[in-house]
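Let us practice reading a record.
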Amino acid sequence: MPGIGFSYKKYVAVMALQIVLVMTVLDVTVVNVALPIMATKFSISNSASVWVVTIYQLVITMLLLPVSSLGDLHSYKRTFLTGVVVFTLSSALCAASQNFTMLVVARALQGVGAACVMGVNIALVRLIYPREILGRGMALNAMCIAIATAAGPTIAGAILSVASWHWLFLINVPLGIAAFCIGWRLLPQNPKADHKPRFDRVSAFENMVVFGLIFYALGNFSRRGDMVLSTVLLTVGLAVGFFYVRRQFKHEQPLLPVDLFRNSMYTMSILTSVCSFLAQSSAMIALPFLYLNIYHFSAITTGLLMTPWPLATMVVSPIAARYVERHNPGATAAAGMGVFIVGVILLLFTGPGTTEIDIAWRMAVCGMGFGMFQTPNGIVMVMATPVNRSGGAGGMQSTARLVGQTLGATMISVVFGLDASEVSAVRLCLIIAAAFSACAGILSYTRTLGHKSELHM
């Protein structure tokens, strides 16, 4: 673990970041398990219950860049602590919800808190960790996300076996209080700046409209909702997006970091991130259908078969972080995508007679590849930006992840809707995952050419 210039207080400060990061990730995975129970409790359809998850992710996507900009201009610490307070209070409100409408509103507020936390998390990691061991901080983030993803269904099952769904939200309250107290005392302030531009409220509003309308429309398309309404919303979102992007070029420190996109390494890192998370989302959504409906494994076995992926990512991420302290992170990320592609191809060659062990180690190969990729790619992205733009860079990194995951989920819905054969649909999804992984790997390797000196820690 960190040793150079790393004090006990910094260890504790990092704890505050990781506690809340785990909470925000868990609040997706644990709620997924409880959706059927909530549908029964509130007498709503299964499709309507998905709004409990959708509204949370939609609000995060809409607010990530505005709150990241606020962190850059004012205080990462204050933005983070505000997010912790909102997330904790809205968790209590979720637990106290007496009807479905109240729950959805509370989940939207949770999304506000989660956006504040996610938007400045990487910026605070950059301030806490010395440059030479920044990779370890990024790896710890990746580990916590992997642990929360892997443990979420198990934690949800354990809680629901002894208590009501309300406790899925109540467990956030003591953790949120602890994280706030630690963060209040130990998180660092922004470096002093001679000049601070004003926060652009018009751009913030345009950002929310653009991301809100586009992602709502894409989700509606994938659910086969009202096609006319979805088309209108998508068209309006794209039209507002045109004026939004044009406005950003006029600002010294724009909300959408178009200034950072002038750096080719940063731009390629964002594109790489979108492609990689699209690939991951495509595979992770399609594989349960393969195991449950085609290979006829039980639900418990399917859950266990999905676990080696995040566990392998958790194990490999810190190793990759140590490795890139002395080696080229861009090349390491490209190699990680190569390993990921191998894992996906190995899964393509499984069949109904494949044993659980044979599937599990193939899943682990995918997770190892993603662990080799995720941390080095994040390092390249962060180090390609100035310190005073860490919030915008981190917010854009999180936005790229959400864009990739959303596009992956939408693409899978389209594939399943067009292909009558479930076997061929799943296999096509895996081919799509391999193709976008190849794009990510090529982009990652390409950015190492001509930038080798910049890519070393």
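A brief commentary: The CA atoms of residues 78 and 286 lie 40 Å apart.
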